[in-house]
Write a structure and sequence with these properties.
Strand order of the largest sheet: 4-7-14-9-10
Number of strands: 18
Number of domains: 2
Largest sheet: 5 strands, antiparallel
CATH class of the largest domain: Mainly Beta
Helix content: 10-25%
Order of helices and strands: HHEHEEEEEEEEEEEEEEEEE
Distance between the termini: 33 Å
Strand content: 35-45%
Shape: elongated
CATH architecture of the largest domain: Sandwich
CATH superfamily of the largest domain: Galactose-binding domain-like
């Protein structure tokens, strides 16, 4: 930030005579005193002194906070209007808990946004398990290979999103359930999950969740597809959800410069892609 000041001023100075005991009389003031007075007056008039001091302190605090090679996390404001009005994002040294801010980011079993392929849901059977959401979930038998289930999340702003699924773990389930992640019609990734073991990830809304990975979404639509290629074992389906991944940056360098009129700060950062 820089600030310049200019202007002309005229001054009349009438200094009273002083006489001190044991010293010679002194009237008026010296040329040096006049120069000092003008400088002090100009600083007070323009605010350069307080301005330079203030920004010097602020840049010092910023330099202390932004350490080289340290990762920092930037979290945009949650609501659309906050972002449109230019509200400053939150800034911190820790990622914090995952936040789900967009609509339609949790799809329960058989809710809107969940579709069944091949024979629809006719090949899927209800099973009971205390660890399942609501105590019930769906399974698909071995002789129905090629059936699939799809969870579709819409209305997303561009960014990175992590996908999660939940299911009860049991010995009769497959050890390589295949999930495919889509950005619109484009396949962004495929992963396999051992459904014999209960999800080992974070808890949300009373259930443990298994991460399927993170992808970039540019189309506004994120879909998760589970395909039955289980052989003689069963695949299990329940709810799915997504969470927006917060951006993070690493400070590469921090430089500042200051003179009587300008204070500048240059920060070089690296965006860390999930």
């Amino acid at each position: 930030m820089s600030k310049r000041f200019s202007g002309n001023a005229r001054f009349a100075w009438n200094a009273p005579s002083r006489r001190r005991s044991g010293s010679a009389a002194r009237d008026g003031f010296t040329y040096l005193e006049l120069q000092v007075a003008f400088v002090l007056f100009a600083l007070a008039l323009s605010g350069v002194g307080p301005l330079v001091i203030m920004y010097s302190r602020q840049t010092g605090e910023l330099e202390n906070r932004l350490r080289d090679e340290q990762t920092h996390y930037i979290t945009p404001q949650e609501t659309m209007w906050e972002r449109r009005l230019g509200a400053v994002p939150d800034f911190g040294d820790t990622p914090g808990a995952s936040t789900i801010t967009e609509p339609n980011t949790l799809i329960e079993l058989l809710e809107a946004g969940m579709t069944g392929g091949s024979a629809g849901y006719s090949d899927w059977a209800w099973s009971n398990h205390p660890a399942a959401r609501g105590g019930r979930y769906l399974t698909n038998r071995a002789d129905n290979e090629g059936d699939w289930i799809r969870w579709t999340f819409t209305g997303l702003k561009p960014g990175y999103y992590e996908a999660f699924v939940t299911f009860p773990g049991t010995w009769s389930h497959v050890n390589d359930a295949t999930y495919t992640l889509f950005d619109g019609p484009t396949v962004r990734g495929t992963t396999t999950v051992d459904q014999r073991i209960a999800p080992t990830g974070e808890w949300f809304d009373g259930s443990p969740w298994q991460s399927l990975g993170t992808i970039a979404v540019t189309s506004g639509t994120f879909a998760i597809r589970l395909t039955d290629d289980a052989g003689w074992q069963y695949i299990a389906i329940s709810a799915a959800r997504i969470a927006e991944v917060k951006n993070d940056i690493t400070i590469l360098s921090f430089d500042r410069a200051m003179d009587s009129e300008n204070v500048s700060v240059t920060v070089q950062v690296q965006e860390n892609v999930p």
